[in-house]
UniProtKB/TrEMBL annotation:
Membrane topology: Single-pass membrane protein
Record's keyword terms, sorted: Golgi apparatus, Membrane, Transmembrane, Transmembrane helix
Cellular compartment(s): Golgi apparatus membrane
Keyword Transmembrane helix applies: yes
Protein name from the UniProt record: Polysaccharide biosynthesis domain-containing protein
Region (Disordered): 206-234
């Protein structure tokens, strides 16, 4: 990440200290920085690579890191987006632990679904090739975690950062689930959203945002690319 990107995230984490709950998708060069900045808070990492997770844990005793298997592929991004619009299981307020939505990550440790996350950073998994897992599921899951927070508590807003925001899939999925109206800044290739919890007793239905994304062109894993991505179910 660039210095302005690092600074934007660091500023928000510091503003939530000393009790910030930080969830990070992706183990990167910056992982130790996030843990250091949030030293007195709770930082949890999620990554697709079990070897990287194991090595990270061995090198940093006490760290919380978990590996998961993503069932999605970049090549399915368009079809999955359409699927999410028609499935009751893909609603914005729910317990993901029991969700059957294909975009919902439901195999994380149980506590992940119980914590009110203050900041979520999406910097993984891989999303640069058609057979990569893509960041569709982390974006959807982050939106649900933010929307499903206990609205009776004071911390009813979640700062969600999406790295590689310039890529088409990241941008479209962010607009669809984190909502364009919640985008407060773009710093370099980093999108910063502030998502409010759903009002208690409110009727969210299947809608995450005021305006739903309409796909007028195929989703491509590369920003500005012309390659059409198929919608297979493999």
């Amino acid at each position: 990440m660039s210095f302005p990107e690092l600074s934007a995230i660091s500023t928000v984490i510091n503003s939530k200290s000393p009790t910030c709950n930080l969830l990070v998708f992706g183990l990167t060069h910056e992982s130790l920085l996030w843990r250091s900045i949030n030293f007195n808070g709770r930082t949890v990492f999620v990554d697709e690579n079990p070897y990287a997770v194991s090595k990270f844990e061995q090198s940093n005793p006490g760290v919380e890191a978990y590996d998961i298997v993503f069932s999605t592929k970049v090549s399915q991004a368009g079809k999955l987006l359409g699927y999410s619009k028609t499935r009751p299981d893909c609603r914005p307020v729910q317990n993901l632990l029991f969700s059957d939505c294909k975009l919902g990550i439901n195999d994380l440790p149980n506590f992940v679904y119980e914590v009110d996350w203050d900041v979520i950073l999406i910097d993984g998994p891989r999303g640069y090739a058609v057979d990569s897992p893509g960041r569709m599921a982390p974006i959807f899951t982050s939106a649900v975690l933010a929307k499903s927070k206990n609205s009776g508590k004071k911390k009813t807003k979640t700062d969600v950062f999406v790295h590689e925001f310039g890529r088409k899939i990241e941008r479209v999925y962010s607009d669809e689930f984190l909502c364009e109206e919640n985008l407060i800044e773009v710093v370099g290739d980093l999108g910063h959203f502030v998502v409010s919890a759903a009002e208690e007793g409110g009727n969210q239905g299947n809608g995450f945002c005021r305006n739903s994304t309409k796909l007028s062109e195929p989703l491509s894993p590369v920003s500005g690319g012309d390659e059409e991505v198929g919608a297979d179910d493999d």
